[in-house]
Amino acid sequence: MNIRRITLLAATAFSLLLAPAQAQWVTLKGKFKVDAAPAPLADLTCNKDPATCCAKKLVDQSLVVSKDLELANVFIYVRTKDVKYDPSLKKNLQPLTLDNKDCVFVPHAAILWTKQKLILKNSDNVGHNTNYTSNAQGFNVLIAPNESVEKSLTVSENLAKGVSCNIHPWMQAQLLVRDNPYFAVTAADGTFEIKNLPKGTNLEYQLWHEKTGYLGEIKVGETSVPKTGKFSLSLDADKDLGTITVPVAKFGGK
After folding, report:
1. What does the DSSP 8-state code read for residue 117?
2. Tens of pLDDT along 99-148?
3. Can you tell me whether residue 22 is helix, strand or coil?
4. What percent of the chain shows pLDDT beyond 90?
5. Between the CA atoms of 151, 155, 161 and 165, what dihedral angle is there, to the nearest 10 degrees?
6. Are 110 and 175 spatial neighbours (Cβ–Cβ below 8 Å)?
7. Residue 21 in this model has a pLDDT that exceeds 90
8. Cβ of 180: how many Cβ atoms within 10 Å?
9. Cα–Cα dist 97/112, whole Å
10. What is the C-alpha separation between 229 and 105, in angstroms, rounded?
11. DSSP per position, 37-103
12. Residue 254 has pLDDT above 70, yes or no
């Protein structure tokens, strides 16, 4: 057997060994929009530390919709218990940072994997406190100007819980803690992407939004989602759900 044939057979065998590992994970993505512009939200009242906090207009972020009707801050996450996850997702895992910046929480909506660290950061020159209202693992910590505090949250939660600052009561955010890495929060353009999902596994997903709670009675791809906001999906390949349209009336709009 010549060298060329041996090399070809070795390369083929190697590719066959790699193929199952490469093919067992898939990606789910999509985009959320509303069907009409919502009613404008009221401006927030700034009445504390005006030099730092009141220099910029404070805007209610409980419903963020772009001029193109793209819907931000929709939570979509896998509820299935003990779901198998890709071990590579633990490599180079970065902490989640929740910043106090210009007297606003950044980001406004976030999800933390229990294997991540949570960094509570204060980028302002005034003190803040971060009050996480979870019955299972809530906390209320003071953060000095330009300092950070590290937290570990190890209990998975089924729903997001509120985050607030008692010093500056207009400051609000939403934080969800999950025991698997399969989740996303829609970006400013309404898009989301969940990578490395287990191929061929039927998984239950949850949709949630701060203004509605469970987000249901909508179509997600070809699936009709009930008012509980839960739906099941099994993927044999990467899937784009396309545009998911939510009636603005669900948010108290037109």
Report:
1. -
2. 999 999 999 999 999 999 999 999 999 999 999 999 999 999 999 999 99
3. helix
4. 87
5. -20
6. yes
7. no
8. 20
9. 10
10. 26
11. PPPPPPBPPP-S-HHHHSSS--B--SS-B-TT-BB---EEEE--TT----GGGGTTPPPEEEEEETT
12. no
The token pair at 27 is 């990606």
Q: Is the pLDDT of residue 81 over 60?
A: yes
Mean pLDDT of all residues in the chain?
92
CA 71 to chain centre: 13
DSSP label at residue 7: H
Nearest to 215 by CA among 205, 206, 223: 206
Measured over all CA atoms, what is the biggest interatomic distance in the chain, rounded to whole angstroms?
83
CB 73 within 8 Å of CB 191? no
If one counts every other C-beta atom within 10 angstroms of the C-beta of residue 241, the result is: 18
Distance CA 151, CA 137 (A): 11
